[in-house]
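Morning F.,

Quick status update on the modeling queue. The single chain you submitted on Monday has been processed. Sequence for confirmation:
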Amino acid sequence: MLDRRSLILALAASPLAGTAPAQGGAVVAPIRLADERVLIDALINGQGPFPFAIDTGAVVSGVEEELALKLGLPLVRKVRLMKREFDLFKVAELTLGGAVRQPDAALFGLKGNLRGATGLIAAGMMTSLDSTLDFERQEWRVYPAGLTERPGYERLNSWIRLDRGANGSERIGVEVTLDGKPLKLVVDTGLPRTMVLERDVGRRLGYWDESRPYSPVPWNGIGGLAPKPSRAMRGGLLQVGSVRFEAPVVTVQDMAPIQQGYDGIIGLPVLERMNLSVDSRGGALWI
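Structure tokens below.
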């Protein structure tokens, strides 16, 4: 089995020939926002580029199964995830943003609409080393030797950990307030919605009330389409650190909890308005 930490270290510490480290010894790769995704160009065994989504809500990286078969990627084995079976493909070399290499990668075969992407890069890309997603400069910066100072950033009440009973990448969690009530949310750049709450949390906060206007919306994740639609409605005040968001769209899932140990998820419409800097050693997120 591939060790995730050594895998991401290899990725971040191997700049391509002709790529110079930038400020603070960073390895820099360009990113872009498109189709409600954070996209980075990827080469698979030298072929491409293919648009991959940076998805900090994902615990495993993947590639469209159709593309994997087209490229002739070797099948390693079948793997079960979220009660479904996936093919696991071997990649001799994955290059991201023309700046960093990852040898001997393993990618899950994914089906369905990836919204403009042909693959996903999981949370471990950001949580194993100090790194920054800079939406203003459209850069992903990785600091193999660490980042000691973050002028202009504020540290959030946050953490980096492996989900209970889960394998794969450690994810970023953060405490926010909604209508003055504290919530623990997964930081998910792959989520095209502002925030999603578990059903019981929504009920506790008054967001699952028949008297409250809402729109039914489908919920479709790696486990497939949920049998019941979620509810989307306007919230009051969302606060992330010192940053305030008035009347955010709050989505409440009508299903059993899927984010163990969390109240829900915070998505890209909020996150793209704040540069995200990860302190992997301190286990914290700065914005």
